[in-house]
Structure formats: structure tokens, C-alpha cells
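Here we describe the complex-level prediction in full. Unlike the single-chain runs in Section 2.1, the two entities below were treated as one system.
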Amino acid sequence: MSASLAIETQDLGRIYKLRGSKKEPRKELVALQDVNLTVAKGELFGLLGPNGAGKTTLIKILTTLLSPTSGWAKVAGADVDREAESVRPRINMVSGGESSGYGLLTVRENLWMFSQFYGVPSKEANERIEALLEMIGMKDRMHTKSSDLSTGLRQKMNIVRGFLTQPEVLFLDEPTLGLDVGAMRDVRKFVLEWLKADKERTLLLTTHYMMEAEELCDRVAIINKGRVLACDTPTALKQRLQKDAIFEIQTSPLNGLSQQMLVDQPEVTQAAIAETETGAKLSLSLVEESALARVINLFTQKDVKVMNLTKREPTLEDVFVDLVGRSMAEEEDHGNTE
Amino acid sequence: MAIQNRDALTKPYSHKDIGLKLFLKTIMARAYPRIIGQQREISWVLFEILLPMLAVCAYVFVYRALNAPEEYVGFVVMGGAMTAFWLNVLWSMSSQLYWEKQQGNLQLYIMAPNSMMAILLGMALGGMLATCLRAVAVTVFGMLMFGVTFQIVSYLQLFAVFTLTMIALYGMGMMMASAFLLFGREAWHIANLAQEPIFLASGFFFPIKFLPFWVAAGASLLPLTLGMDAMRQLVFNSEFSGGFLPVSTEIWILAGLAVLFVVVSKYLLAYVEKLAVREGRITESRR
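The structure predicted for the assembly as a whole is:
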């Protein structure tokens, strides 16, 4: 492993053996397959994928909580499976929606307790807790029992817990899940400030918020069904689609018009449909803008009215649709029905 | 977001403790919520002192109605005090790792550089100290209400018996914590099943020498059985406080149990941790 790498994986895989009834043979679930990734020191690396894509499994392996069933992974230069003791002092993790800590303890006491598990001197930990809470905008809640905190404040406390031990590599698993817009903004700002303060720090972030990945990450790996489908900078990933024109169309109800009918039209490369209260919202990738006329014709045949039509730049969501053939939301629904 | 203290982001810590210092720090930090929690949630006064005192009162009135020697009132009060430890180990200590898993703390404990054994010891120490206060409260309550008096035969032996009983009992609790995590809800049913028979088999409210020998010998695998028997011999210096075995023998057996339970709990915890990482089903509840 190169000294400049914070994370490296080689053919990493994880198969879960699912417990069924005693008479039936145990079923297997492939959660990760042949994952090859490198993350440089100082990088903010994003893992983007729908629920069940394998993001959390990958994070659990990298944080020494789960053994891989094939391949290997190194974090901060040490093998996560065979040298977990070397990895653990140098990492930390925060998960979205976690309810860690003890409700009877105050915010400061909870954070102090976790800092002690990493051997941080008590006095320094308390000073650092106060400063970090001030930065994230909840110093006034330092002496509040954590059971009295709102979901957003509790998550902010968890974020501080992750940063408090000064890890070399920090894993944030859906850190803004369920937060309001203001809290999300505070957390993102905090993350960027923390990274900026030391060029050696590395952060791996999993999210299914496309905007979050675009805004924060230096590079993004798109993951689905346990496989990494693409890995590059957000700009480079989007450039893959620059050749196509992307239109967003709001329509009345589709009257049986399906995604397949749209994709079957010449020069329509991708189509994603999301139903809305008043009808549907379509996202179409067209090789030539002239193909739009044929799509409009199709709408007319099906008696579908166009309420709004805009052309826009591609996003990471479009990249996902291009790679998987479905939007992230559709992929999650599809996964749930399988 | 006001950035007033950039040092918080950039300044490294002077050092981070490792080895024994980290081990001890972890024990103290994990004991903290248990000790501090007791001050903030005072409902325990009702559930763990006043309600158990009802059972103590019932036994005292039965013994007095039967004109039993007055030492038996003291036996019952001591049994009431020790009940707090048994309930604490059976419910709070044993179920703690399972609860930590549900809360999401367990994976943070495993991922941290501390030893899981230190976490368990912290839980045990915190539980023990918090429960000591409850046991003292029950004893004082019993002394004031029923006029129980103590005649200590040997302070040194009493200290040894109590300390070894606590180490063995909480060692057993640590072992059970891993077992609960491993077997989940099935372990819950076993604990439910064990709670009441132990009050009988361990002689919480009467001397176990009156049990058939092999029943008493079997019950002696539970540290509280011999612990209480030895303590009764040491604090009620009378003809009625004759024990199941001599105090010195009971001290040796308790020492053996203490070592056995702590060692087994260490290996069981290591096994559970290994299984958690290999199968991925212990730190999360979805598989």
C-alpha cells in the first residue's frame, strides 16, 4: 500500500449467510463483490448508492466491525481483518440516525465518556468538547441530558463524537439522514472545515443524497448491488453524459405511458419517471434535441399534457440512471420487491 | 457556524493513553453512566428498596409469628439487601450488552481501541457501586424498622467474603452478558425462569443448611449462596448462625468461583467479539 493512500481495497467481497428454517439450507446474500478502491490521504471520498447497495457493509469492513469473505482492505496502512488493533486507534465512525450514548448523561458527559475509550486526556477532552460544540452550534446544550435533545441535535452530538478523537480516517455513514435543512448545512460546513484544517485527514462519506455527494466529495464511487459501477470526480462522472441533452418534463397523468415506451423511441437513451400528485415528472436523456418532437408526439397520442419542460445540466442522479438503467428511488423500490 | 477556536480542529492531543492506562480509563468511563444515572433517576428508591422491603417484612412477620430466634430477622434483612445485587446482575448486567447492541453503542465499543473486557468490567464496577448503595439502604431500613443488630466475628474475613462474592457474582454477570448477546431472547426466558428459584435455592431468607445437602451444594455454584452463608456466620455471632460449610472453606470456594467466572467471561467475550466480526449478526439486529 502506498504511503499516500488512506484506504485501499482489493477484490473485496462479503457474503452473508442468512438464517432460515432449520430444515432448509442457509441462503447466501452477496452484499459486496470485487470492490477495488483507493482513497488518497486528505481526500473526501463519497460512496453513492441506494439503500441496500452495500455501502454500510463496506464501511463496516473498513472500520473492523466485519470480516470480508474475499479480498482484503487496508486502512491507514494496516489490514482491517488481521491488524484491527492497529487500525482502531486511527479511525472513527458516525452513522446517520444512531442513538448511541446514554440518555441520562449530558451531552458533555457522553462525549467525554467516548473520548476516554480512545485514551484522550480528560482535561484536553473537555476543552475540545466545548470548542467543537461551539463550532457545530450547540454549546448552549452542553449540559442538556441527551435524552432531551431533538433528532438533529442528537446527530450533531454524534458528529462531534466522531471528530473528537482526531481520527486519521473518519467514516460518515449517511450522517445527515433525517436532519432538517439547517442542521444539514451546519454538518456539511463542519465537515469541510475539519478537512481543511489538516491535509492528512481523510473522510469517507456514504450518502444517497446526490447533492450532498456533488457538493462535498473530491471523488465519488457509485455502488449498486454490491459492485462499484464507476469511480471518478463528480465532474468527470457527469461529463460521461455531456453528449446527451437532458430534459425534465412535468406532465398530467401518463395514461399508461411507460418508461419502456419512452426508451423505445429513437435517440432516447434514458428515461426516468417519478409520479407526482398532479401527474408525473420525467427525466429524459436524448442523443439529439430533435428527438423531443417524437416524445411530444407520443404524449399527444396518449393524451398526456405537458405542464412544464426544462433543459438542464446532467447530475450524479443522471449518471446513476445511465449506469443502472433506473433512478436511485426506482432501484430501491425494485430491490424491496425482489 | 462561528469558528472561534480553530485549535479545536488543528491542535493534536498531548498524548493518548494506551495499554493499562487505557484499560483503566475505559473501566472508569463505562462505570460513570451507572453511578451518575442513579442520582438522576431516583425511581430506584421505590422499585429497589421499598418494594423488596415488602417481601422482607412478610418473612419477618412469619418468623416472629412462629417465635423463631431473633437472628432470623437479621438473616431476612441481609437476604433483602443481597437481593439488590442478584436482580442487578440478572437484569441490568446480563442484558446490558444486548441493550448496547440495540442502542448502537456496541459497535462503537468494538471499533474503539479499548478492550471489550474493560467495558464489561466498567459495567460491573458501576453496577456494583450503585447497588451497594441500595443494599446499604435496605440494611439500614431493616435495622431501623426491626431493630436488627450485628455482632461481627472477623472484619477481615467479612471483607474477604464480601469482596470475593462480588467479584464472583459480577464475573458471572459478565459471563451472562456475553451469553445474552449470543442467544438473544432465549436467554431472556432463562433469566425469567431463574429469578425466583434462586431466591429459594440460594437461601435469601433462610440458612441453606436446612436444604438437602446436594441441593445446597448445587446452589453453591451461585456465588451469593456461599457468600450469604458465610456473611451470616460472620455478622450474627450466635448458635443459630451455623453455616452450610466453615467460613474458611467458603472463602476458598468463592475465590475459585471468582477466578472461574472472570476467566470464562473473558474467553466468552472474545468468542462473541470474534463471531460478531465474522458473521456480522451480533452488532446489528437485521440479520
